[in-house]
Amino acid sequence: EQMNIVVILSGGVGSRMKMSRPKQYILVNDKPVFLYSFLQFCHRTDIDAFVIVVAPEWEEFIQKTLRTITVQQPVFYAIPGSCRQSSIFNAMSVAKENLYIKDKDLIVIHDAVRPLVSDSIISKCLKYYEGFDGVLPVIPLKDTVYRSNDSVNIVELLPRHELFAGQSPESFYFLKYWTAHKNLSESEMGHITGGAELAHRGGLKIRLIEGSELNFKITTTKDLDDFQTFLNIYRPPQ
Length: 238
Description:
alpha/beta
């Protein structure tokens, strides 16, 4: 029986948005952003446990918020690392301490600030494993992409049809992904930008699936406004 463990990355302190609180804790229609992300997973019967990465000063806020809804699965907490990848490693360490992980168990890593992830993307991340070790939703790039090493001069034009923007959730066979981490130092982890990069470097075979424009990451105040607008038009499950 495969166990699916969801890691919600909610550890960021939101330096880019100049707000009094990190963006994942901003209230939109009286609910913090992270809760929308969490709700997309917790109503599912194929999710077995959660690990939430959270800065210690926000853990009580998350616990209090989760008491307002019904959560069937156990929820564990991990502290953020110095970068996204070490936060993932901390979360996996907490999972390993608290759960018995077997070969076919999956780790599903989601950004708390992608509140509109769809059921179908989550389902594919749990099921599209035949011949692969991981699944990553991506969207094709629409714009022409140029590479420059000084922000002024063009070095080369990159073939757009070969380029994709990665989203989350990223999902992997837990133990294979864990092994890929074990071979990295903290500073090497710091240079990794997406969880699938580490998996790829560790020799895991990753399947790309179609992501969604709606599965955007809330990084700026405009993104927050877009999310609010979307909620006003379409109410997600409560």
